[in-house]
Write a structure and sequence with these properties.
The structure holds 2 protein chains of 2 kinds. By secondary structure, chain A is an alpha+beta fold. Chain A is built from 2 helices and 3 strands, in the order βαβαβ. Chain A has a single domain, classed as Mth169, Chain: A (2-Layer Sandwich), CATH 3.30.1280.10. A 3-stranded antiparallel sheet of chain A has the order 2-1-3, covered by helices on one side. The model of chain A has no long low-confidence stretch (mean pLDDT 93). Chain B has a single domain, classed as Rossmann fold, CATH 3.40.50.880. In chain B, β10 and β11 form a beta hairpin. The chains are: A alpha+beta, B alpha/beta. Chains A and B meet through α1 of A and loops of B.
Chain lengths: 89, 231
């Protein structure tokens, strides 16, 4: 088995109410950043796992995103996979 | 009637719910979230609180508790399941109810009385009320802003799944009395089969004279009545 690092980015779907983003936008505006048009706040999961290959790691990540990490009603997810170098014994 | 009140780590309205069911004479017990036996159960309450610290999303982790597999099977078999506040969030996460509860539009945790209109009195949870009756009940939540995509929302409305709506004290629609920005002022919905109810307000906190109202008692009375064997 090989080791992989996953970055799973969860983002609120565009157009949906994102109160956290609104709050941050207002704070930015009060700091004088008048050019800010929109802010949305999402979250990122950093996951390490072992899998046979990159495809298998990605399949696992998609599965866990669908089942738990993202809310299918309101959120989208994007996955990046990178292989971790084996630590020599 | 035998009621199981589920306690998740972080539940904090389980005792209030237990007390409300006791008041209406139900044989009530607590069910720890690791238990899975619902064989001696006529109705299930998923209480309010902050299961698993609301980590990830409200209700997202509780939904994978061992007990929830049994609750889903119980609901699919037609058993009545009442989810209040965090319980409503868990029912949505578990796919027993459509939609989800977003952060309140105000971004504030809201804890105060609201008024909700009973839209349907033909559910096991509302038959003690007349349709159109306005109830005064408290809310206490940060994530109570009901949201479903437009197709789902239209289907919910077409099928009459909205059981409670936020109104003014006279039962009129008024955005000023929508405490969280919920679509169509939705405070509570039932499943298509009608045996699963999720609601954000806390009827169990409006059952005795020490409370600001006793309007919530009817929810518990309704369940007891609906489960009484027909003579």
């Amino acid at each position: 088995m090989r080791s992989f690092h996953l970055e799973i980015r969860i983002s609120p779907r565009p157009g949906l109410l994102n109160p956290e983003g609104n709050a941050v936008q207002h704070a930015l505006e009060s700091l004088g950043y008048d050019s800010v048009k929109d802010v949305r706040v999402g979250k990122t999961f950093y996951v390490q796992l072992s899998a046979a290959d990159e495809d298998a790691a990605r399949t696992l990540a998609e599965d866990m995103s669908r089942r738990l990490l993202a809310n299918p009603v309101t959120e989208d997810f994007r996955i990046e996979v990178s292989e971790l170098a084996e630590v020599p014994a | 009637m035998r009621v199981a009140v589920v306690t998740f780590p972080g539940s904090n309205c389980d005792h209030d719910g237990y007390h409300a069911f006791k008041l209406v004479g139900a044989d009530t017990r607590f069910l720890w979230h690791r238990e899975t036996d619902l064989s001696d159960t006529d109705a299930v309450l998923l209480p309010g609180g902050f299961s698993y610290g609301d980590y990830l999303r409200s209700g997202a982790i509780a939904r994978f508790s061992p007990v929830m597999e049994a609750v889903v099977a119980f609901a699919r078999a037609g058993g009545p399941v009442l989810g209040i506040c965090n319980g409503f969030q868990i029912l949505c996460e578990a796919g027993l109810l459509p939609g989800t509860l977003l952060r309140n539009e105000s971004r504030r945790f809201r804890a105060h009385d609201v008024w909700i209109r009973v839209e349907r009195s033909d559910t096991p949870f509302t038959l003690a009320y007349e349709a159109g009756r306005v109830l005064r009940v408290p809310i206490a939540h940060a994530d109570g802003n009901y949201f479903a995509d437009s197709d789902t929302l239209a289907r919910i409305e077409d099928r009459g799944q909205v059981v409670f709506r936020y109104t003014d004290p006279d039962g009129n629609p008024d955005p000023a009395y929508n405490p969280n920005g919920a679509q169509n002022r939705i405070a509570g919905i039932v499943s298509e089969q009608g045996n699963v109810l999720g609601m954000m307000p806390h009827p169990e906190r409006a059952v005795e004279s020490v409370h600001s109202s006793t309007d919530g008692l009817g929810v518990f009375q309704s369940l007891v009545t609906s489960l009484q064997p027909v003579p």
